[in-house]
Specification:
With 681 residues, the chain is an alpha+beta fold. It has 24 helices and 20 strands. It has a five-stranded mixed β-sheet, with helices on both faces. Strands 8-9-12-15-16 form a five-stranded antiparallel β-sheet. The chain has a four-stranded mixed β-sheet with strand order 18-17-19-20, with helices on both faces. β6 and β7 form a beta hairpin.
Length: 681
C-alpha cells in the first residue's frame, strides 16, 4: 500500500504511483518495521533534483525493485525540504560513512531509526544487488549491523555536538576571513573553487559589508567580478532572469538547470546591494530581472513563493533553455538570428549536449548605445516568446517558511534601492516601475501568508501548499529567516505589527532552541526525537539556522533598543567564530552579520511628514553602513520604537543616528547625515 497520495509535498506525490509500499516519515512506519522485524529504507530527495528523478525512473517505478523493497523493508520517502532535521541527521551519517553526500540519499536503518548503511544514487543493477545484500546481512549478521549502526550514531553525535570552543567574532578575525577568501578566489572565472561551482552569495554579501567597513578594494573587486561573471554566464537565464542552482563547469557556462527560491532570494539581495553601493548598471538590471523572476515565476497568488523550478523538462535537462544557431534563425530571422548567436555565444559546436548551447552574454550591452540595447531587448522578447511555446519545467509549489523569509528580506531591500534610483528619464523606467509593483505585492502576500497560515498557536510550521499548512514543525532557520524578514518589512512599511511578530518568533526561538554556551539546536526542545538533535553551525546552500537567527536578533535589537537580543546574538556568534577563522567559505552569513555588529549596527530614524519622498530618507538608505536599520515616519509613530520621543527639529525633518545604542545629535541636512554615517564611497 503506497501511502503518499495525501502528502503535501510535490516530491512525495511524484512517488504516489510507485509499486513501492512507501510510507511517509512517521512513528507508525518505524513501528511497522519493528513488528515485521525488517530494516528501514529511508530515501531522501526533493522535487527539483535531477538524479532523484533518474533513480525513481530506474528503480522505484520498477516492479522487480518494488517487490524486493516490499518483501524485505519498510520504505520511507522524505522530502528534505519539508524535513531538514531528518535530512541533516542522515546526511551527516552519509558523509561519515562515504566521505560525501548528496541527493537522492539512500539510508538503511534499524527499526529505531539507527542508520547502518548509507549512500546516494545507485543505478538499478547496483541497487538491486544492494537490497539483496542488506537483506542477507540483516538476517544473518544482525549483531554486526547493529554494531555498525551504533558507531554511526556516535559519529553523528560528535558532528552535531554543541558546547565547543568560542571566540569573539572581532575585526582581526573578519579581516582574516576576507583574506582567506581572497586566497581561494578564482581570479579568472570568479567565484571560489572549481567545478561544480555554486553561486557564493553569502560570501559575497559578507565581502560587500567588509568593503563598506574597511574600504578594502579587493573585497569589492572579488564581488563585482564574480557577480558579473555569473550574470554573463549560462547559470543566469538571459531571457527571463533568475539563476540556476549551480554550474557543472568552473566558468559558469552550463548550469544544473533547477532554479531554487533560496538561491534567487540571496542573489537578489547581493545584486541589489552591489547596485546600491556602486550604481553598476549590470547589477541594476540583474536585480530587477531576478525580482521579476521571483514575482512572475515563483510567487503563488494569494500565498507565498514556491520552492523551485525543476531541473528537467519531460525528463530531459535543458530542453526548455538550450538553443542551436538554426533555432535562433527560425525564431528571429536570418539577420537577427546571426546577431543573437554572436551576442549569446551560440555556436555550431554547442556548449551543451547534441550541439545545443546555453545562452551566455558574450558582449557588453549594459553600457552599449541606445540602439544596441533596444535591439537586444527586442531580441530577448522574441526569443522568450518562442521559448514559451516549448515544454516547461515543473514547479515545486510548496511554500517553505525560511526561504520565503529570505525572499521577503531581499525584495524589501530591492524596493528601497529601486526607489533611490527612480528616474523618469531612464529608458526602462516603466519596466522598473512594473517590476517593483508586482514584486511588492508578491512580498506582502507572502508575509501575510506566513503570518496567518504558517503561524499556528504561536509556533511556525515549515511548509504549506495550496493554502493549507503542513504538519512539519518549523526549525531554527524558519524562525530566524522569518523574523529577519518581518524586521525588513517593518523598516520598509513602518507598520508595527511586523516588528511585534518578529519579536514573538525570536522569543520562541530563544526559549525552545537554546543550547549550552550560547549555541542553538536546529530543532525545538519539544520536537520529534531523532537519533541525534541537529545543531549545524555552518552556512551551506542556505544560512544555517544559527546564522539566520543571529541576523534576526541583530536587526530586532537595533530596531527596538532591547539589549538582551544583541547579547544573545553575540554569544551565538562566538560559537561560530572558530569556524569563521578556519572555513570562511562555509560561514558567509554569520560573517556578514558579524560585520553588522562590528559596524554598530547603526540605527537610523528619520522623522518626517513624507517618509517616501524625503531626501533624508533616501540618503539614509543610500549611505547606510553595514547591517544598519533605517526607519522613517512621523514623530512617535505607533509601533515604531525608533521614532519614539524623536521630534521634528524646528519644524523640519531630522535624522537621528545611533550606533550600538549610543546616539548623536539629530541632523537636518543630507550633507550632515552623509557625514554622520561616514560613507566610504
Amino acid at each position: 500500500m503506497n501511502r503518499l497520495a495525501d502528502a503535501t509535498s510535490p516530491y512525495l506525490l511524484q512517488h504516489a504511483d510507485n509499486p513501492v509500499d512507501w510510507w511517509q516519515w512517521s512513528d507508525e512506519a518505524f513501528a511497522e518495521a519493528k513488528r515485521r522485524d525488517v530494516p528501514v529504507l529511508i530515501s531522501v530527495g526533493y522535487a527539483a533534483c535531477h538524479w532523484c528523478h533518474v533513480m525513481a525512473h530506474e528503480s522505484f517505478e520498477n516492479e522487480q525493485v518494488g517487490a524486493l523493497l516490499n518483501d524485505n523493508f519498510v520504505s520511507i520517502k522524505v522530502d528534505r525540504e519539508e524535513r531538514p532535521d531528518v535530512d541533516a541527521i542522515y546526511m551527516t551519517a552519509t558523509q561519515a560513512m562515504t566521505g560525501q553526500g548528496g541527493w537522492p540519499m539512500t539510508v538503511f536503518a534499524t527499526p529505531d531509526g539507527t542508520p547502518f548503511f548509507c549512500g546516494t544514487y545507485f543505478p538499478k543493477a547496483n541497487f538491486v544487488q544492494l537490497l539483496q545484500s542488506v537483506t542477507t546481512a540483516w538476517r544473518e549478521q544482525r549483531e554486526a549491523v547493529v554494531r555498525q549502526g551504533a558507531a554511526v550514531v556516535k559519529a553523528i553525535g560528535g558532528a552535531q555536538a554543541v558546547g565547543g570552543p568560542t571566540a569573539p567574532l572581532d575585526a582581526p578575525l573578519l579581516d582574516a576571513a576576507a583574506g582567506q577568501l581572497a586566497k581561494e578566489y578564482d581570479a579568472t572565472n570568479g567565484g571560489f573553487g572549481g567545478a561544480p561551482k555554486f553561486p557564493p552569495h553569502m560570501n559575497l554579501l559578507f565581502l560587500l559589508r567588509h568593503h563598506q567597513r574597511t574600504g578594502d578594494p579587493e573585497s569589492l573587486e572579488i564581488t563585482r567580478h564574480t557577480a558579473e561573471a555569473m550574470a554573463r554566464g549560462g547559470i543566469y537565464d538571459q531571457l527571463a532572469g533568475g539563476f540556476a542552482r549551480y554550474s557543472v563547469d568552473a566558468h559558469w557556462t552550463v548550469p544544473h538547470f533547477e532554479k531554487m527560491l533560496y538561491d534567487n532570494a540571496l542573489l537578489l539581495r547581493l545584486y541589489t546591494q552591489l547596485w546600491r553601493l556602486t550604481g553598476d548598471p549590470l547589477a541594476r538590471r540583474v536585480a530587477r530581472d531576478t525580482a521579476r523572476f521571483l514575482a512572475d515565476e515563483l510567487h503563488r497568488p494569494g500565498e507565498g513563493f514556491a520552492s523551485a523550478l525543476d531541473a528537467d523538462t519531460e525528463g530531459v535537462e535543458g530542453l526548455t533553455y538550450a538553443w542551436t544557431p538554426a533555432q535562433l534563425v527560425e525564431a528571429l530571422g536570418e539577420e537577427d538570428g546571426r546577431w543573437a548567436a554572436d551576442l549569446f555565444a551560440v555556436t555550431d559546436e554547442g556548449t551543451f549536449e547534441k550541439g545545443m548551447s546555453v545562452l551566455r552574454l558574450a558582449r557588453d550591452v549594459d553600457d552599449a548605445g541606445p540602439e544596441v540595447r533596444a535591439r537586444w531587448q527586442q531580441v530577448v522578447g522574441r526569443l522568450l516568446a518562442a521559448r514559451d511555446t516549448r515544454p516547461q519545467p515543473a514547479r515545486d509549489d510548496k511554500v517553505v517558511a525560511a526561504w520565503n523569509g529570505l525572499a521577503i528580506t531581499a525584495i524589501a531591500e530591492f524596493q528601497q534601492v529601486a526607489a533611490l534610483y527612480a528616474s523618469p528619464q531612464d529608458e526602462d523606467a516603466n519596466l522598473m516601475d512594473g517590476v517593483t509593483i508586482v514584486a511588492d505585492g508578491a512580498m506582502r502576500q507572502a508575509a501575510e501568508h506566513l503570518a496567518t497560515v504558517h503561524l499556528v498557536d504561536g509556533r511556525l510550521r515549515r511548509v504549506s501548499r495550496d493554502g493549507t499548512v503542513g504538519e512539519p514543525a518549523g526549525v531554527l532557520e524558519d524562525y530566524g529567516s522569518v523574523a529577519e524578514a518581518f524586521c525588513a518589512l517593518h523598516q520598509l512599511t513602518g507598520e508595527g505589527r511586523w516588528l511585534t511578530l518578529a519579536g514573538e518568533l525570536l522569543d520562541t526561538a530563544l526559549a525552545r532552541f537554546a543550547a549550552p554556551g550560547g549555541a542553538f539546536y536546529d530543532t525545538a526542545d519539544d520536537a520529534e526525537r531523532l537519533v541525534a538533535r541537529p545543531a549545524d553551525p555552518t552556512d551551506n546552500a542556505t544560512p544555517s539556522g544559527r546564522s539566520a537567527l543571529i541576523a534576526g536578533l541583530v536587526a530586532y535589537s537595533a530596531l527596538t533598543g532591547e539589549t538582551r537580543y544583541r547579547e544573545a546574538a553575540e554569544a551565538a556568534l562566538a560559537t561560530v567564530a572558530p569556524i569563521v577563522g578556519r572555513h570562511p567559505r562555509f560561514t558567509g552569513y554569520a560573517a556578514m552579520t558579524g560585520e553588522a555588529l562590528l559596524s554598530g549596527p547603526y540605527e537610523i530614524a528619520v522623522v518626517t511628514e513624507d517618509p517616501t519622498g524625503d531626501p533624508l530618507v533616501a540618503a539614509a538608505r543610500r549611505y547606510a553602513p553595514p547591517g544598519a536599520v533605517v526607519v522613517a515616519g512621523r514623530p512617535d509613530q505607533a509601533g515604531v520604537p525608533l521614532l519614539a520621543d524623536r521630534p521634528l527639529v524646528d519644524g523640519r525633518s531630522a535624522a537621528y543616528v545611533c550606533r550600538g545604542f549610543v546616539c548623536q545629535r539629530p541632523v537636518t541636512s543630507v550633507e550632515g547625515l552623509v557625514a554622520e554615517l561616514g560613507s566610504t564611497r
